[in-house]
Write a structure and sequence with these properties.
The chain is of the alpha+beta class. Helix content is 50%, strand content 13%. Among the domains are: 13-150, no CATH class; 280-353, no CATH class. It contains 15 helices and twelve strands. Helix 3 (50-57) crosses helix 4, helix 6 (92-105) packs parallel to helix 8 (123-137) and helix 10 (173-186) crosses helix 11 (198-214). The termini are far apart.
Length: 366
Amino acid sequence: MALMVREDAELASRLVALRQYIDGLELKFSELAAEFAKSDYWEHQGSNSAIDWLRFHCHMTSHAAADRVAVGERVTQMPESRVAMREGEIGFAHLTVMARTANAVGEAFSEGSLLELARESSPGKFHYKCLHYRHAVNSEKYAAEQNGLAHGSYLHLNAQEDGCVSVVGMLDPIGGAVLRNALEPLARRSGKDDHRERPLRLADALVELAESRTRVHMQVTSSLETLLDLAGAVGAEHEFSLPISFKTAQRWACDCSVTRVLLQDSVVMDVGQAERTIRGAKRRALNARDQHCQWPGCERTASFCDGHHIVFWMHGGGDELDNLVLLCRRHHRMVHEGGWQLVRSEGRGIITVAPTVTFGLPRGPD
């Protein structure tokens, strides 16, 4: 055991020494990169900038190349930090943050103040503290920079062949913070049996957040035959989706606003008033009784739950409280699309019954 600990300590020491050696090389590279940026060689080579030349010929990202040039240009203003890096008190990553901060604040840059922060912080934490420093130096400029970032936000929603939607985007720091603040509580595991990985939980949370805000505006067209899953019935329809399965249509119909639209030869003959299936005092009573999702082990609050009919109303189930139960979006989907069943038991609450699984075909006759 003692030998293993000693070997691990030697390995750790080698890692630290190697990192310091690499940091030294990074600093030397940065000084050369800054000197190279002053030349016109990169322009003669057809590059748009020295950073563009470094990106292509030194196999770097644009961000990494820009950091090296910034450090090289500012290193003469950071003599104490240079010594601190060589002595292992800070790393090259601290120098990149310091150089970016110097570029942002200009003449207000104070190496001594930032070096103390760097010595006591990891590079990530140091970056965070430098943002506070930049705000303290010039709050108006900092606010203008943040406002400028908001104009760079974007979101692309691209429909795939199978109906899935690819989401690619970038949010400014404030928008990102708002989104994360809304998603994080919804992305927590809903119980000990929730084995979803975090990316899936975040994706489900995003949909859950959207449904909780906009479900009354969802316009889904479905026939009674589809809701009853009669043979030959087509799927339900929504403006932004491929045909929707009868199971999803049933789940949405559990707790939504239903409007009667009568058609004859594709001509609208009558439109009735929208009526919420679980509404008003009944919904308030359901919330007061259940308070949260009633799936065992789940405590998603009532505001993020659907009212589920244990016996679906298209199959004769009524709106009496004994036939209603609160389910979060995930567990509501598991019942309708996943094939789970719910049974209300006196004294035990809701019992979940897993879908039937067939592991193989029965053996045929010999």
